[in-house]
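Q: I'm building a small set of examples for a reading group on sequence design. Run inverse folding on the following structure and report the sequence directly after it, with nothing in between.
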């Protein structure tokens, strides 16, 4: 994703919209590898504030993930908005803006910048559905599809007594 801000950076108050649709390579995150199932759609509205370029962005894509309970693979939609500041290198030392993205030339790549936002928006755990029953810890059966023979056998007897009390038996 390359942007060219040659015009934009020379006119205070000017703004421009950039649209991208690009296929990204798999994302490596610790031991996990996430495959993008759809192109990364990015919309950027960039405004020259006089000091820097203020960026309002929207991103959407789909990644393949595994449910942390039943391990099933399913598509997880990514969709979020973000804000960035792009700062020309000649101003970066004056301000010491650490959060800003520093650019040197009129044309630059924003892939890294975009991936940083994606990383922030990927949850630690995924669930295929709110009420996923997960796998049986004893036989490994997918409890969403089948009820295995272990079901019911693993109730702690002390808990059983408690449940009777609760029902007033
Ligand atoms: Zn699941
Ligand atoms: Zn089982």
């Amino acid at each position: 994703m390359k942007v060219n801000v040659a015009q934009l950076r020379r006119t205070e108050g000017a703004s421009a919209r950039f649209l991208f649709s690009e296929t990204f390579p798999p994302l490596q995150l610790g031991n996990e590898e996430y495959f993008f199932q759809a192109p990364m759609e990015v919309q950027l509205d960039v405004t020259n504030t006089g000091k820097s370029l203020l960026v309002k962005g929207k991103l959407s894509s789909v990644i393949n993930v595994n449910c942390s309970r039943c391990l099933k693979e399913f598509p997880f939609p990514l969709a979020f908005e973000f804000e960035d500041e792009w700062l020309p290198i000649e101003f970066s030392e004056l301000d010491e803006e650490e959060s800003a993205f520093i650019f040197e030339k009129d044309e630059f790549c924003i892939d890294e910048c975009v991936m940083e936002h994606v990383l922030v928006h990927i949850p630690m755990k995924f669930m295929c559905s709110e009420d996923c029953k997960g796998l049986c810890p004893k036989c490994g059966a997918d409890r969403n599809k089948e009820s295995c023979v272990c079901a019911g056998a693993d109730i702690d007897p002390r808990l059983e007594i408690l449940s009777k009390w609760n029902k007033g038996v």
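Residues 157-167 form the longest helix (11 residues).
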